[in-house]
Amino acid sequence: MGYTRKLLERESKIGRPVRVGLVGAGQMGSGFIAQIARQKGVDITAVADVAVERAISALRNAGIDDVVQDGDTSVLSRAIEAGRHVVVNDALTLTKLPIDLVIECSGVPEIAAKVALASLLGGKDVALMTVEADVTVGLLLARIAAQTGNIYTVCRGDEPVECLKLVEYVQDIGLEVVCAGKGKNNPLNSAATPAMLVDEAAAKGMNPRMLCSFVDGTKTMIEMAALANAADLQLSKRSMNGPPATVPTLHDIFKPVSDGGILPSSGVVDYATGPVAPGVFVVAKADDDVVREELRYLKLGDGPYFAFYRPYHLASVEAVLSIGEVIIDRQASLAPAAWNADVSAMAKRDLVVGEKIDGIGGEHVYGDAVSAVEARAGRELPIGLASAATLRRNVAKGTPITYDDVTLDETKTIVILRKLQDALLTDGLLEETQLLTDSVLEDSQLLTDSVLEDSHLLSLIK
């Protein structure tokens, strides 16, 4: 922490603030812009949105009026060097401008994957708000980042990242992590569709698809899979348990069956329904009698299982913390350390040949958290690829959609990256392959519609 002081020291040393470019000026992005504008030592230099006026409005609401619009990157770059702010309608333009960090807030996995790849290959750090992309291709993006010398991360503020910080705290004080998770404030309804939620979404000021991804459980499955991969934990079981719980009962519920709880073993992720939301938790075990007695004296319970709880996550309000972690500490807030969990696309209803799947939060599929080993053995389609899929076989309601059931749009960046990640994945880790060569880094056409065509990256898939 203490990033305000450190960022100001950096600004004084190099003569300018950290320059941030942000993709997506919707609800989440506009909130992030407002927070960045308030942060000392940081400037929200550029915003990309297909609706340019929305980007201009978000900057204006943050007190920024000196906005330049021009498709010529040289003009935009000169404006930035002169201390002005720019808006563009193409997210990939940001990767060609003199900025330090690209933050992606589109909410669309394909855009997030494309922005992340372009940023890393363009020599820039990148932070995603779209965790859906991380649970699809995050391990590969983290490897590419390491080989470029840049940082790839998911932003602070959402449950998986804040729970990871709690996991790290528990580990740092020498306790065993038994279970890590989040609270969910409503029961799962895997059959929910956007059409069913129009009125509720309007009352909450939300997009019906976004609300649907919460109600049908997809978002929870994605968040807990991201946590499992970043913390190198396992899922408690397929779909997890999601029992009703309160904060005082966490340590009694989320412990191994052998000790009266619901878990098959320690070192897992799960979630609770009820008033644990909107917080995150870790249940830890203290085997040492002296430590256990000290924790009892400090009113944390009788042990040996103890619950550590953070009662909130602040979304875009605290997402700015990732700027300091990336720029000052040169570390990711959250990135996969292993590939332990996947989120598979499950049919919400009977699906028929020829239907094009509408993706996360839609009418066709919901996400189900599953061990990566099981998903791979069953050739289950990751939810992050669902919107690139057209059915070539019928799929029954409530069953996983497999790669064999669909035709994928091979021009999509996220499809290509997932194929590469799968090709290099062994026992939950990526093979030590040199993904990037000088010829790849110099290839300015890497992200055209013929994504990765004739590149070294694509050759590794074949």
Give an overview of the whole structure.
- The protein is of the alpha/beta class.
- It folds into three domains: 3-157 and 317-327, NAD(P)-binding Rossmann-like Domain (Rossmann fold); 159-313, no CATH class; 341-459, Type Iii Antifreeze Protein Isoform Hplc 12.
- It is built from 18 helices and 18 strands.
- It has helices spanning 3-14, 27-38, 52-61, 73-81, 109-121, 131-148, 159-172, 198-204, 208-215, 218-231, 250-253, 289-297, 315-319, 321-327, 372-377, 413-424, 438-441, 456-459, and strands spanning 18-23, 42-48, 67-69, 85-88, 101-104, 125-128, 152-154, 176-184, 234-235, 268-273, 280-285, 305-310, 341-347, 365-371, 389-391, 406-408, 425-426, 429-430.
- Helix 5 (109-121) crosses helix 16 and helix 7 (159-172) packs parallel to helix 10.
- The longest helix is centred in the first third of the chain and has 18 residues, at 131-148.
- The chain starts with a helix and ends with a helix.
- Residues 438-455 have low confidence and may be disordered.
Quick structural summary:
With 462 residues, the protein is α/β, with parallel strands linked by helices. The protein contains 18 helices and 18 strands.
Secondary-structure map:
Layout: H1 3-14, E1 18-23, H2 27-38, E2 42-48, H3 52-61, E3 67-69, H4 73-81, E4 85-88, E5 101-104, H5 109-121, E6 125-128, H6 131-148, E7 152-154, H7 159-172, E8 176-184, H8 198-204, H9 208-215, H10 218-231, E9 234-235, H11 250-253, E10 268-273, E11 280-285, H12 289-297, E12 305-310, H13 315-319, H14 321-327, E13 341-347, E14 365-371, H15 372-377, E15 389-391, E16 406-408, H16 413-424, E17 425-426, E18 429-430, H17 438-441, H18 456-459
Parallel strand pairs: 1-2, 1-5, 2-4, 3-4, 5-6, 6-7, 8-10, 9-10
Antiparallel strand pairs: 8-11, 11-12, 13-14, 15-16, 17-18
